Every structure is written in C-alpha cells, then in structure tokens.
Amino acid sequence: MAKPVLLVVDDDKDTLQLIARDLERNYGRQYRVLTALVGRDALKTLRQLKDRNEQAALILANLRLADMTGVELLREAHNLFPEAKRALLTTFRDTETALKSLDETRIDDYLIKPCQPPEQNLYPVLDDLLTDWSARSRPPVAGLRVVGGRFSAKSHQVRDFLVRNCVPFEWIDIERDEEARRLVGETRDEPTRLPIVLFPDGSRLMQPTNAEIARKIGLKMRPEGAFYDLVIVGGGPSGLAAAVYGASEGLRTVMVERHAPGGQAGSSPMIENYLGFPAGLSGADLARRAVAQAKKFKVEIVTPQLVTKVRVEGPLRTVTLGDDSDLRCHVVLVATGVQWRRLDVPGIDKLIGAGVYYGGTLAEAFFCRDEDVYIVGGANSAGQAAVSFSRYARTVTMLVREESLSESMSRYLIDQIAATKNIKVRLRTTVVEVHGDQRLEAITIYDAAKGEKEIISTNALFIFIGALPHTEWLAEIIETDDHGFILTGPDLQRGRGEGHWPRGWTLERDPFWLESSKPGIFAAGDVRHGSVKRVAAGVGEGATAVQFIHQYLASAER
Ligand SMILES: Cc1cc2nc3c(=O)[nH]c(=O)nc-3n(C[C@H](O)[C@H](O)[C@H](O)COP(=O)(O)OP(=O)(O)OC[C@H]3O[C@@H](n4cnc5c(N)ncnc54)[C@H](O)[C@@H]3O)c2cc1C
Predict the structure, then answer these.
(1) Cα angle at 556 between 555 and 557, to 5 degrees?
(2) What SS3 state is found at 132?
(3) How far apart are CA 40 and CA 167, in angstroms?
(4) Shortest CA distance to 84 belongs to which of 44, 37, 45, 136?
(5) Distance (Å) of CA 371 to CA 360, 366, 457, 473
C-alpha cells in the first residue's frame, strides 16, 4: 500500500522547499511528501490520489496563494479527503486572519512561517495532527472488520463500542456491499447473526457482546491487584484527570469504566472551549490523549466493567464489580457523570440504534452523508452535533422545544449554526411520535407556534435532551439531592447549619470540599451536586479531588 501523503502548498519556492525538506526528514519513513506552488496543481494532485485510492493525511497550505486563498484550497481539499488534517501556513502579521479561518472553516491549526527551528515550530503541531489522523484513518484491509446493517441496533452497539475505545475497524454494510454478502455467505454452516466481527487472526464473533469483543482485542476487564490507594469509578474527563494526577503523585490507582474512556465528552464531535486547543478537538481525541497520559503514569484502566456497589468497613472501602468480584482500597472517587434522558414518545424504544440515537459520535455523522437528519435538543451538545453533522448530511434540522436557542446554547455555537446554510432550526417544536418497524422511517412533530402536527420522513434522529445521574447503586451509602446528584463538602451541611455534619458522620472534622457524606468516598464532575457540567470543570474537579484525597490519607482520623 502506498504511504499516506503530506501535501505542502506555497507559492514561495524557498519556503516550500524548506518545509518539504523538514517534513521529509521527520516523517519520510511513514509518509510521502508532495509539494505544489499553486492551488490548482495541489487540487489536481489530490484528485489523482483519490482516483488511485490513496490517502492524504495532511495538507499544509499558505494563507495566500497566487490563484486562490489557502482557505479556499483547504475547503476543496476537505471535500476530497474529509478525514485529512488541514493547517494554514501564515506570517505573524496574518495570524488574526488565520485564526478567523480556523473558526469559520474548521481548519485544524495554523503555523507561523518559516516554522524554524522545526523541532519547536513545526513538528510538535504536526505530530499532534498526524497522531489524531492515524487514530481515525481507515484501517488497512488486514485489520478488524465489522459486517452489519446500518439500521441494526446490535450493529450500532458494536460500532459505538469500537469507536469509543479508539479501535480502528473497517465497516462493511451488508445492504450496500458485495464483499459483505460474500463474507457472510462463508458462514452459512450456522445461521447468520449480524453483526459479525472479523478479526485479523481469521477468527470471527457473531453478534458479540462488548465484553466478548473486549476480551478478543485485549482490553483489560479485570484489575491486576486486589488493593489500591484509589479506585476511580468512571472514565470521563473527571475520572481521567483524577487518574493522571493520582498516579503521577504516587497513588496506586485503578480506573473502572463501564463502556469506554472519554465519557460524555467522548461523544462530542468538537469541543471548542477547552483551554489550549484553539481549533477545538473532538471528544475522541481528548479521550485518546488522556488515556495515553494515564497509562504513562501506570494507571490501570479496567474496561468495560461496571461498578455495582461500594461498602465501607472502617478505613477499608470495597468496590464490587459487575462480575461480582471485589476490589479493596483506601479511597473511592465517584466520577460517573450523567446519562442522556430518554425521550418518552410512542414507537421509540424499538428503534434505538436503528435510526434513533442518544447522543451521536462522528462515526454516526459519516453514515448520514447526503441525508436529512433531525436533532432533538437546543443545548450545546445538540448544537455541536448539528454543526458537525452538517458537514456530511444534506440537511440538519434542529427541533427545539424552547422559544430561542439563546436560553440554552453558547453564543459561538448559535453563530456557527446561523452561518451554516444546511442547518435549519425549528423552535417551539417537539417530537411526539416516531414511526418504523425495523428502522426509523418517519417522525411526527408538533409545532406549538402553529398548533399543528406534521409527519416527516427521515432515517436519522439524534436526541440530546439533558441528562441525569445514575447513582441509585450508591443511594444507601451516600447522600444525594432529589435528582440523585451527589452532595459533597459544604453542600452536605445545607439546611443543617455550619458544623452540623451529615447523617452517620463520625469524624471531628468537616467533610472536605469534594468528599461525600462517607469519609473516603469522593465525587467529581457532572455527578456532583452543583457541578458546572463542562469538560474543564470536570478535569479541574478530578485534579482537585486528588489533593483532598492526599489530605484524607494523611489524616490520622479516617
Ligand atoms: C455531545 C456532548 C458535547 C459536549 N460538549 C462539550 C463542550 O464542548 N465543552 C464542554 O466543556 N463540555 C461539553 N460537554 C459536557 C462534558 O462532556 C461533560 O461535562 C463531561 O464529560 C463530564 O465529565 P465527567 O467525567 O464528570 O462525566 P462523564 O463524561 O459523564 O463520564 C462518566 C463516565 O462514567 C462511566 N460510568 C457511569 N456509571 C458507571 C459505573 N457504575 N461503573 C463504571 N463506569 C461508570 C460512564 O460510562 C462514563 O464514561 C458535552 C457533552 C456532550 C454529551
């Protein structure tokens, strides 16, 4: 297979040669470096690559070219290679213009010329972009393959599990692909149950559970040790941050995650407001980076594995896992976040995963190419999904119950939505019924402004309507508010007055800020009462919890 291409486009011949030389030196073993002096030639090269079924990994274009702008070129390039990373080359004086383009056209980054020395001003940015690209790019044919139906809930579950665990795979659609029928045909000796997962070693699993796939691809579902300083329940941003800080500061740490590291953030197509990433980054990229960082500090990541119970016996905390095994520790941090609230309308339950989806990753967006997609919800998560789906879908319609988006959505997203031609927002509109037998075929919506119902044909409905914690399994142990969010620190004294401790609290000190009503059980992130429900806030709380955990461990009184 030909090496993926790095394409540099600049009408200044000296700069072009300098950058191409630096790229060749650092990336030449894995990538082929191509150059073009004008946009027209660059597009010609990209079309040829596409015709030959080759891959473009990265396109670097100067902001100003003789025949078009770099932004125009990168926009065209995106149509040819949607997964390729794109960056603008610019001068210091043009930085503002470059930054504006990042915002408007979803270009991944910019570099200030002459990018010297490359070790400082070129390679760090490109290393990041190329790592992201290779994590997402299509796998070689010899990799893992999944044969299934787009509108099968079981296929969706397998796809979602692999995507969220950053396992590259080739999707083969039984309805569209000759190859799929041939592969399925080979298994006629037993009745075919889709999806089928084909592993590189030639083995296959029919309709596998997440646990079966996990075992096969080598995910760790059992902890190695029996005792830890810190057990973190939940692998979203809060849990991952606590894992990194805990382990890097010497705590023997295990993180137990029931689905895949990344949590809700892992399903976000583009996080724009996380500090340090001016071009935004997808939740999957954030999760992948955080997992790598946690592993660097020797955090044990146990997934997929559910935590079902926590017991307190003196200074010992015992966590029970989904397979009924126990894990003992000094401290538990609950970072279990929230889950999507269900939309309760007739016909919906049987179509979940078969056209109706709660949340939606970029992987689902690819499937909606040239389709009319409907999104329920008017908060940031729904807005982000609309913007990212609009790159693939023919139209995206947001169905919003409120009278305006400004009540629930950040200004930057409202502006992006307004500027995106194929996104339509229908205010004061709710879904009242969904239709379809094997797959979603239509929805009935109610437009409160007109007082009318309308039936609309669609194969794709994505629901983003707020979320609630699932803390029932902790209810007997720790105090929560009326919605199940965990009370911590000063919130435990609410209504009791200062110095009045929670029920059953036996220590002479007050609970630490992120400590629950049981000493040594802490909570961080969205699951906590009063939390801010942002990635940065979750990361901050995860990191801060570790400070209090140290204080807890150091105190004579436990
Ligand atoms: C689509 C979308 C887009 C978003 N975009 C942004 C954005 O742009 N900017 C921003 O700041 N915020 C954004 N948010 C919000 C942000 O993602 C959350 O605030 C953040 O993920 C909360 O992190 P957390 O670790 O507290 O919880 P979560 O991310 O919810 O993670 C909790 C984890 O715990 C696991 N878990 C739950 N119960 C158990 C159990 N019993 N055993 C084991 N594991 C368990 C879950 O599987 C999950 O992985 C977005 C959210 C969504 C859904």
Answers:
(1) 90
(2) helix
(3) 36
(4) 136
(5) 15, 10, 11, 41
Beta-bridge mates of residue 89: 62, 111
Give the pLDDT means over successive 10-residue stretches in the chain (558 positions). 93 94 96 96 96 94 94 93 92 85 81 90 92 73 80 89 86 79 62 83 92 93 95 98 98 97 88 87 89 94 97 95 96 96 94 89 77 95 91 94 90 93 96 94 96 96 91 92 94 74 85 96 96 94 98 83
SS3 call for 106: coil
**What residue type is assigned to position 100 of the chain?**
K
Q: What is the pLDDT of residue 191?
A: 56
The atom number, within ligand 1, closest to the CA of 239 reads 25
**270 CA distance to ligand 1 middle (Å):** 14
Residues with CB under 6 A from ligand 1: 233-239, 256-259, 263-265, 267-268, 271-273, 306-307, 335-338, 359, 380-381, 384, 525-526, 533-536, 538
Tell me the helices (H) and strands (E) count for the chain, helix number first.
15, 26
CA distance 91 to 78: 23
CA 176 – ligand 1 centroid, Å: 34
H helical segments located in 377-522: 380-389, 411-419
Give the position of tokens 């930054």: 99
Picking from 189, 57, 53, 47, the residue whose alpha carbon sits closest to that of residue 130 is 57
Collapse the DSSP code of 374 into the 3-class scheme (helix H, G, I; strand E, B; otherwise coil) and give the result.
strand
Residue whose CA lies nearest to ligand 1 atom number 26: 525
Closest CA to 352 of 337, 342, 365: 342
Q: Ligand 1 centre from 268 Cα, in Å? A: 9
The CA distance from 144 to 198, in Å, is 6
Contact of 172 with 155, CB cutoff 8 Å: no
Nearest-CA residue for atom 6 of ligand 1:
271
Smallest CA separation from ligand 1 atom 22, residue: 526
CA distance 316 to 54: 57
Closest ligand 1 atom to Cα of 525: 26
How many Å lie between the centroid of ligand 1 and the Cα of residue 413?
20
Ligand 1 site-directed mutation target among 157, 286, 336, 533, most atoms within 8 Å of CB: 336
Q: Which residue, among 46, 62, 84, has the nearest Cα to 9 in the 3D structure?
A: 62
Give the separation between CA 49 and CA 80, rounded to whole angstroms: 10
pLDDT value of residue 140: 47
Give, using CA atoms, the residue closest to atom 11 of ligand 1: 534
What's the pLDDT score for residue 557? 66
From 389, 535, 539, 541, mutation site for ligand 1 pocket: most ligand atoms within 8 A of C-beta: 535
With tokens 């997203």, the residue in question is 413
Distances from the Cα of 436 to the Cα of 258, 350, 397, 443, 533, angstroms = 31, 9, 19, 9, 35
Going by C-alpha positions, the residue among 247, 273, 248, 263 that lies closest to residue 334 is 263
List the structure tokens of 218: 């080598």
Residue 120, C-beta contacts closer than 8 angstroms, at least 6 positions apart: none
- From CA 20, how far away is CA 36, in angstroms rounded? 10
Query: In terms of residues, how long is the chain?
Result: 558
